[in-house]
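Example 3.2
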Amino acid sequence: MNEYLRIALHLATVAVPVLPLRAGKLPFGNCRRCADNACGGRPNMKTAGACECPAPCHGWAAATTHATVLTSRPWAGAWREARAVAYHPGGAGVTVVDLDSPEAAVWARESLPRTRTVPTTRGEHWIYQGVMRGANNVRPGVDIKSLMAYVRWLGPGTGVMTALPDAVRALTVKERPVAEHGAAVASVPVSAGGVCRHRTPAYLERGIAMAEGRITDARSAVHTTVYRVFLAVLSTHGRCGCLTEAHVQRLFLAAQAKGESARHCAIAWANARTALGV
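Structure, written as tokens:
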């Protein structure tokens, strides 16, 4: 058996969604329409690229834990040509802080809680338990890989994995503008229509709690319920900037408690944002 496929099948057994990478750490197109990466290797979401396939077939969106998918056509040829195995950290419930230089690794050791560490060609991967939206270039030599991202598998690493800290989440939060008199602008953003009605924290908290309840109470059509709840939350709270990573994670955790995977949560959230244009 191909060595990369053997690694992928092992990871799949421990609930790590995987996919093959070709030369240059690029994903394969795993459907006939996208053979040889004809559409650019992007997932089938309008926000991510031009692929119009009926099902996710590229990059993080194609990562799977199903052995039958990994060993069936059209990925059979991909594994023969693969140069690495990648995984979807968000789907595995983790966040990878990609430190792409010795200087970045030194910064992490001085600034972040220690966690499981994997050596890379130029630096280190620090892996935390928990998911968040990823972002590149959050500081020199530092990328965040979690939801809607893939990372090359370089081994299990060493050390005990710790919970995703606020210090990592804060790396993706943009600084708010400062008023002319020098004081920071109110932490709750202003919506396009005027003063944000979520200036009262109870309003947003009540909305998130109701959304969690709707997901928890679903007895059937969980996929559809999760998507509609995401739509409802984003339509009410998505345009004013009040939603935080903590709120999104609460919704994802409620959905996962009903059997949804982190990958499906990420796809449903992205599709809801696309549908609403937020």
